[in-house]
Amino acid sequence: MVTIVDVAKHAGVAPSTVSYVLTGKRPVSAGTRVRVRESIQLLGYQPHAGARALASSRTNVLALVLPLREGVHLPVVMRFVTSVVMAARAHDMDVLLVTADQGAAGLRRVAGGARVDGFLVMDVALDDERLPVLRELGRPAVLLGHPSAVKGLTCVDLDFEAAGARCVDHLAELGHRSIGFLGAPSAVYARRTGFAQRTLAGFSAAAMRRGIASTALPAEQRYDSVHAVVTTLLRELPRMSALVVHNEAVLGWVVDCLRAEGRRVPDDVAVVAICPDELAEQLRLTSVQLPADVLGRRAVELLMAKLNGQQPPPLTLLPPKLFSRTGPVVPMLAGQRMRLGETPRRVS
Amino acid sequence: MVTIVDVAKHAGVAPSTVSYVLTGKRPVSAGTRVRVRESIQLLGYQPHAGARALASSRTNVLALVLPLREGVHLPVVMRFVTSVVMAARAHDMDVLLVTADQGAAGLRRVAGGARVDGFLVMDVALDDERLPVLRELGRPAVLLGHPSAVKGLTCVDLDFEAAGARCVDHLAELGHRSIGFLGAPSAVYARRTGFAQRTLAGFSAAAMRRGIASTALPAEQRYDSVHAVVTTLLRELPRMSALVVHNEAVLGWVVDCLRAEGRRVPDDVAVVAICPDELAEQLRLTSVQLPADVLGRRAVELLMAKLNGQQPPPLTLLPPKLFSRTGPVVPMLAGQRMRLGETPRRVS
DNA sequence: CTGAAAGCGCTAACAC
DNA sequence: GTGTTAGCGCTTTCAG
């Protein structure tokens, strides 16, 4: 293995100088800097992460705490993961995965062993048991999602309340006076997950404010549940002309079910979703974006700020963006014809 | 911070003894062992990961290299991730995430800095550019998926070839004589991804062997593409009575499209999928399981074996398991009625 | 069965 | 602007 001493010898300088070239923590004359860089390149030197962590008590690793619970939409989680990893890499950080099932003990273990510099925690409940632990550990942490009391924390989230309201406003402007809401599985509300409750609250408040009739129901991740919810909504709100869907997993089925009940989408019932753009694009539905990439990146940036001793605001809320998609909604019903792309070619 | 010296003093032993109690690398008398354990507990001692790595050149961290390319199904990747993390934890290992976009350089960086003990690489292409790098790094690695030449490597994979054949066999036994194959996006085949090609090969060979008419087409992740493929298949194989689908992302649409073309599922066209059980269960389709949890766990176990100096076989293939689901397939068409669960209750 | 002590490779005072 | 050096906390010989 090639060490810092090897590099120092090769460049004819002291080990510390090599270190300073690498960290930039003290000025090095241009000449030596170049020489050291060349030696590093030539010898293929890579600082030993453990040694560095030991000497500097900085690991350049952050922990990403993942949810694994019912009702979390795997593709969305995966989008967060990739955006966090890429953002972290841009700050020369690596990402250590901690699954939520390891609970508070997992956080303790990882922090206690000085394995990570800070935490990124996803899927925070309104009254999350990990919050006291996070405080006690005294390591910088940023939450993706936010609990009820935000004081002393750093949280990033989409403004779900505004998102729920935004859907209503958009539909109201189009003239709808009776709007349904199809939400996440009931378990998600039962465990007081912030984003779900807030979206619903924003939706309800906006409907109330505008004197719009509305009803909200949770939907499980099964076709029959979605179907039951849709028929119930149609029964309870006979004049329902629009539906807000906050449940990525069953979004496609919602359209199916409306059609199965004889409602054309969007002519009879307009559908607005709160979901990742990619999914809405695929189904060609109007939607409020769930910008996992932006949220992930912002979370990493806030964590880096805290690691550098700054005190970012306790709550960063991203304003929701509604993207209106008109035109034919897929999937189509029997009998209708799609615009076809080129004829598929055989797999080679 | 509480160090090994603190524990040693508290227990009245030498630091080395504490170390040996922890690692078990040399026998310690029952009495002292208990005393040391108590002190550790009492003081809340956690070994410093960096110091440990420096002294022992073992990090207890493994790198998981994730694919991020077009056509990889995010939920499936996420299932692998969680199963790998949980299996790793069972071996007292943590998981560091490396995204494939970091490429060979990412592997070099992580290995060179002694950040990890070994690699788990997902989504390996038949002629993967990272393989030579992995060899050169000289760290234990296990591949999820396998390239064409397996010599000197350690790979775990579902036996996709057998999976493709299994679908044909199952359908043949049910009397089908004309079977279509709807595959992954063409990009997946273009980049010579092992699992996709092998499934197709197994399917084609089995059809050939049994004298069954068959046609295979790739499908993009858009409704119009799926629709085009389905109509093309129906045109090219007019007597097609069964369809094998190897494309999780569009599985639901396939059923929609068949119905849009006036074919009842499964009465007119039987559909067999190769996908995670959960998805098949949701759609109530017969399927060959994609057991991400088993594969992930097995991969970790093989990596641990290599870290312990063993030489596991170069290729572990899991036999495919077909799970037959009969009864109504969702989603239903307009006019048809689902068995309803209980009436949904309002979101509190 | 246990202790003493020499590093592991790097950083960050402290010197000049 | 650069060199010297004392640790960082742990493992692991070598001694007993």
Report the mean per-residue pLDDT of chain A as an integer.
91
Beta strand count of chain A: 12
Q: Mind describing the biggest β-sheet of chain A?
A: 6 strands, parallel
Percentage of residues in strands of chain A: 15-25%
- Low-pLDDT parts of chain A are 332-341
Question: Taking strands numbered 1, 2, ... along the chain, how are they ordered across the largest sheet of chain A?
Answer: 2-1-3-4-5-11
Euclidean distance between termini CA atoms of chain A: 46 Å
Protein model, in words:
2 copies of one chain form a homodimer. The first copy, chain A, is an alpha/beta fold. Helix content of chain A is 45%, strand content 16%. Chain A is built from 14 helices and 12 strands. In chain A, the strands form 2 sheets. Chain A has a 6-stranded parallel β-sheet with strand order 2-1-3-4-5-11, with helices on both faces. In chain A, strands 7-6-8-9-10-12 form a 6-stranded mixed β-sheet, sandwiched between helices. In chain A, α8 runs parallel beside α10. Chain A is elongated. The two termini of chain A are 46 Å apart. About 3% of the residues of chain A have low confidence. The interface between A and B is large, with 89 and 89 residues. β2 of chain A pairs antiparallel with β2 of chain B, so a sheet runs across the interface. Chain A binds a DNA duplex (16 and 16 nucleotides) through α2 and α4.
